[in-house]
Amino acid sequence: MTSERTQVAIIGAGPAGLLLGQLMHRHGIEAVILEARSREYVEARIRAGVLEQGTMEVLREAGVGERMEREGLVHRGIYLCFDHVLHHIPMTELTHGRSVMIYGQTEVVKDLIEARQKAGAPLLFECEDVTVEGLEHDEPVVRYRHGGAEHELRCDIVAGCDGFHGVCRPTIPEDALTVWERGYPYAWLGILADVPPSTDELIYAYSDRGFALHSMRSLTRSRLYVQVDPDEEIAEWPDDRIWSELHQRLASDGWELAEGPILEKGITPMRSFVAAPMRYRSLMLAGDAAHIVPPTGAKGLNLAVADVTVLADALIGHLTAGSDTGLDEYSDRCLTRVWRAQHFSWFMTTMLHLDHSDDTYGRQLQRSQLRYVTTSTAAATSLAENYVGLTLEQTAPAGATP
Ligand code: FAD
Ligand code: PHB
User: Fold this and answer.
1) One of 184, 291, 295, 318 is an active-site residue; which one?
2) Catalytic residue list contains 165
3) 75 tagged catalytic
4) What is the pLDDT of residue 401?
5) Ligand 2, atom 1, residue with closest C-alpha
6) What is the pLDDT of residue 391?
7) Which of 143, 231, 249, 382 could join 212 in a cystine, given CB atoms 3.0 to 4.6 angstroms apart?
8) Could you give the C-alpha distances from 68 to 26, 174, 180, 190, in angstroms and in order?
9) Per DSSP, which regions of 52-118 are E strands?
10) 295 a catalytic residue
């Protein structure tokens, strides 16, 4: 058994853990990142694709924005499609010049891993049986197995960045957490296709057959989704069936969807979830470890980045100046933003998906809301400012230390 010490033990090498590691490194704070999966697995896991302006700025300031600037696609609007008509929401015009960047989570993760390796900072893949102990006595110890040997890592703070199914949140005593949750009667079947996008900006489509989304990863790769039942098997969806649904759901006058070879496909369940507070003694939760949103608002990755930005400041204050204010305010600071994103993600999801019941009243409400956001500047502005992302100042809790 080896025993080591560090300042911050970061569990999980998703966007949250890797970015926190990068921010710690830039401020001269020692951290060790422990990841359960292999590097190949983590780098290939296809997930989010839309970065808010604030996320781009954080990545740039963290010194990992160079390839994103070169290869990312700046988008200044989205389309909402219903009744086979495309309606443009000019987000940049409505938000004093703010925009989003299309750049895959896989690429963000690759850039962060490369930066950490270049810095020679510790990042261990394929760690088994990670446990967090000693929180009750404020002497946190993380134990894990790596390379066939047992290890013990003592630290000042544990950052639980291990996603929704991780070990950190379950370590917290049940009576110390409050949980809010909502399930949805649908899931997304997503594909990555080797074909140039058929659209310049993302199309979110409401149709009688269910929701569809046309997104992209580059000028040559399209990412598309169709709403399916949550218990659907991917084997029931041969490529022809997927394309047929996409054609029907995305159809609009004078527009054509181009097909190409499908490189990857999978089904993602949908859930809304918040656990609070996001701190238990010296364990800080960040990203999906503390909250989940359905992907319709494109907020999951952006929330993880926002949490970590606040957490990095708090850790710098604690470890370099001995101030606990940041750590004490961390959870409240994050949660105001988290709940805004929860509401927006729920709003986009319920406006755009069919629940397959005969709820004709509900469908009339959806159509009314779609007409409203596509005809009223006030309603479109509300959608746009949430989509491009509110600033950290806009979501600061009342009375927080600036
Ligand atoms: P994660 O990315 O989940 O990273 C957590 C890391 O911790 C993982 O690498 C995991 O392997 C590791 N880990 C877990 N347990 C342990 C352990 N015991 N020990 C050590 N390491 C551990 N958001 C969008 O905005 N748009 C999308 O299209 C979208 N699609 C998604 C599809 C799927 C299948 C999922 C699960 C999420 C999707 N999201 C999407 C959400 C978005 O990807 C997440 O919000 C984002 O990944 C959160 O980052 P994170 O670092 O908090 O968590
Ligand atoms: C994606 O490109 O994967 C994507 C884009 C927008 C969303 C969700 C996912 O709302």
Assistant:
1) 295
2) no
3) yes
4) 55
5) 49
6) 80
7) 249
8) 19, 40, 35, 23
9) 73-75, 78-82, 85-89, 100-102
10) yes
Inter-residue contact 227 to 186 (CB < 8 Å): yes
Kindly list the distances between the CA atom of residue 51 and the CA atoms of 146, 278, 297, in Å, as whole numbers in the listed order.
33, 23, 11
Q: Say if ligand 2 is within 6 A of residue 197 CB.
A: no
Q: State which residues of the chain have pLDDT below 50.
A: none
Q: Among the bound ligands, name the one nearest to the CA of residue 222.
A: 2
* Cβ-proximal residues to 395 (8 Å cutoff; 6+ apart), any chain: 336, 337, 340
Cα 94 to middle of ligand 2, angstroms: 21
How many residues make up the chain in this entry? 402
Name the one residue in this structure whose structure tokens are 């409401």.
206
* Model pLDDT, residue 355: 87
Residue 89: predicted pLDDT: 98
CA-closest residue to ligand 1 atom 35: 47
Terminal-to-terminal C-alpha distance of the chain = 44
The pLDDT score that the predictor gives to residue 396 is 81
CA atoms of 194 and 390, how far apart (whole Å): 33
| Closest ligand (CA of 215) | 2
What's the token pair of residue 189? 């079947």
Establish whether 206 is a catalytic residue.
no
Task: Note the pLDDT of residue 106.
Answer: 97
**According to the model, what pLDDT value does residue 356 have?**
78
Question: What residue's CA is closest to ligand 1, atom 2?
Answer: 14
The partner residues of 237 in beta bridges, in order of sequence, read none
**Residue 140 neighbours by CB under 8 Å, 6+ apart:** 9, 132, 133, 134, 154, 155, 156, 157, 158, 282, 283
- Cα-to-centroid distance, 206 and ligand 2 (Å): 15
